[in-house]
Amino acid sequence: VLYDNLTGLETLYFFADLKAVPRRECAALLDKVGLTAAAGRRVREYSKGMRQRLGFAQALLGTPRLLFLDEPTTGLDPGAIRDFYRILRELKGEGVTMVLTSHILAEIQERVDRLAIMEGGQIRATGTVQALREAMNLPLTLEIAGGAGLREQVTRALEGLAIDGIEESGSLLHIRLARDAKMPALTRLATLGDTLRDLHVREPSLEDVFFGYRA
For 123, phi and psi rounded to 5 degrees? Predict the structure, then answer.
């Protein structure tokens, strides 16, 4: 809870006193989260994103070894989100353990070491993002760019493999295929030479994994 009648700096002083942390840490923490210019403003004047940053600064008081962060980037603009995760990387390098809850799956899928998927108040699965992808055995997507006749040549090259579907969008082909067909497909596609201009392998997103466990 933040008190609207206090300034940002007074807020940190208050929590520093509660935690028996020296007040001299407070100004540096406000600077760390980008609130130095607003240190003397009343919290009632803070935007939602500024309140989030002030709450984060409060959590960092006393150099904690364990942090619990609940939807910490709600209300933050893209620049502030980038700075937030930069700070988390620095804390990780210092040995701090962080438990973060979020509904913004695309934002966290490349930023967590391990995750737990919860649904209906129960933990359905735990592991790395890649391990959960593989456990679900969700199909991959190959995105291929090429010239005229690309679809026909690719279809012939991949004949007999576990292909879930091929969609064409302009000069791009989107091919869904089973995970165990990835390497055989890439081997065959390599024989097409200059017919292919580009190729990307799209792994299932964390959102795909989440809904896979809910199914």
Answer: -75, 120
H or E element: which one contains 8? helix 8-19
The model's pLDDT over 62-93, given as tens digits with 9 standing for 90+, comes to 999 999 999 999 888 899 999 999 999 999 99
State CA 176 to chain mean position distance.
Answer: 23
Strand blocks (E) in the chain: 66-70, 97-101, 115-119, 122-127, 140-146, 163-169, 172-177, 196-202
59, 91 in Cβ contact below 8 A? Answer: no
Asked if residue 213 lies in contact with residue 119, where contact means CB atoms within 8 angstroms, the answer is yes
Strand pairing class (163-169; 66-70): unpaired
Residues 97 and 171 in one domain: no
* Greatest Cα pair distance in the chain: 71
- Pairing verdict, β 66-70 and 97-101: parallel
What pLDDT does residue 4 have? Answer: 95
**Is the domain of 152 the same as that of 93?**
no
Please tell me whether residue 43 adopts helix, strand or coil conformation. helix
Say how far apart CA 165 and CA 167 lie, in whole Å.
Answer: 7
Residues 14 and 75 placed together within one structural domain of the fold: yes
CATH code: domain of residue 40: 3.40.50.300
pTM across the whole model = 0.75
* One-letter-per-residue 3-state SS of 114-173: CEEEEECCEEEEEECHHHHHHHHCCCEEEEEEECCCHHHHHHHHCCCCCEEEEEEECCEE
